[in-house]
Write a structure and sequence with these properties.
Elements: H1 2-23, H2 31-53, H3 61-65, H4 67-84, H5 89-96, H6 99-110, H7 117-136, H8 145-148, H9 150-178, H10 194-219, H11 230-261, H12 264-275, H13 282-303
Length: 304
């Protein structure tokens, strides 16, 4: 069953990326904030459902204790949603998925963990691909500044990199929070409940952020009308559903599931090409596939 859940998670999260992109309309000024509200709303419902149906012994203090990790995850997603308004999903998603490589570098630089030569090769491949994509953004027919203006083009293209960096910081902190129960900053947790306690804390934090953002956009005279948020809510549902199946995938055979899950960017690329009709140049696809191959290599190596 773990294989089914791994494949389901990969497809569901790829589908979430598709709906995120559809909901991040460039002509809708606060589209990225409305997506955050939608995600926070659905995650909040899931957190309440977890607390009502599962005995995880949740201590509200963990909401504060886990806040540093939640902060990186929430802010990274906000940056991602903003970038989606202007950057093709075929470009942004592979860049965002380089967060795993950044985590490996952080573990090497800060924790002194050894990196296998094959992992270094994968990271170099990712770096070359990302630099190639970045170079093409400012040359020839792919020059985005001609459409958005130089300043906005730079800001938009920076968003996937900010997501990757901040998400990596959150994942890196998770090592300290989730690796060993005895030394975890979380309180009243066990080996069986620590991951769900952390996830519930994250979801509740996102829900509180959603409330604040809703108050902000309403104060600016912007309406959040549920019937008009279909794509945003579908993305939020897929995001949360993917988190649910992810737990079962990793608990069954995490070493093999992890490389499969890293293929989310491949699913996202295919769905974007089919449903969003995104068309990139051959050179762009070449460098993007370098990034994807590097990500898959790194996931397979780390999963061994």
């Amino acid at each position: 069953m773990w294989l089914f859940f791994a494949l389901a998670t990969t497809f569901i999260w790829g589908l979430a990326e598709l709906f995120y992109k559809k909901g991040a309309r460039p002509d809708e000024k606060y589209a990225h904030l409305k997506i955050c509200i939608s995600v926070g709303f659905v995650m909040g419902l899931h957190a309440v459902f977890t607390l009502l149906t599962k005995d995880i012994g949740y201590d509200p203090e963990n909401l504060i204790r886990y806040l540093p990790v939640s902060f990186f995850y929430v802010v990274s997603m906000a940056f991602s949603f903003f970038g989606m308004r202007f950057i093709e999903e075929s470009i942004s998603d592979p860049i965002e998925n380089t967060s795993g490589a950044i985590v490996s570098l952080l573990c090497f630089l800060i924790l002194g963990q050894a990196i296998q030569p094959s992992s270094i090769s994968a990271i170099i491949l990712i770096a070359i691909g990302v630099v190639g994509v970045g170079f093409l953004e400012n040359t020839g027919s792919t020059k985005r500044s001609a459409k958005l203006g130089k300043k906005m083009a730079v800001i938009a293209f920076t968003m996937p990199f900010l997501y990757a960096t901040l998400d990596a910081c959150g994942s890196f902190l998770d090592i300290f929070y989730l690796d060993e129960v005895e030394r975890s900053p979380l309180v009243n947790v066990t080996e069986e409940t620590i991951e769900e306690v952390a996830n519930t804390s994250y979801e509740l934090t996102f829900a509180f952020v959603a409330i604040l953002l809703y108050i902000f956009i309403r104060a600016r005279g912007v309406k959040y009308e549920l019937p008009k948020q279909r794509d945003k809510l579908l993305a939020a549902v897929c995001e949360t559903a993917g988190q649910f199946t992810y737990v079962f995938a990793m608990s069954g055979n995490g070493q093999i599931a992890a490389p499969i899950l890293s293929a989310v960017c491949v699913v996202s690329l295919l769905l974007s090409r089919i449903f969003l009709k995104e068309k990139l140049t051959k050179n762009q696809y070449f460098f993007i596939f370098m990034v994807i191959i590097g990500i898959l290599m790194l996931a397979a190596i780390e999963g061994d």
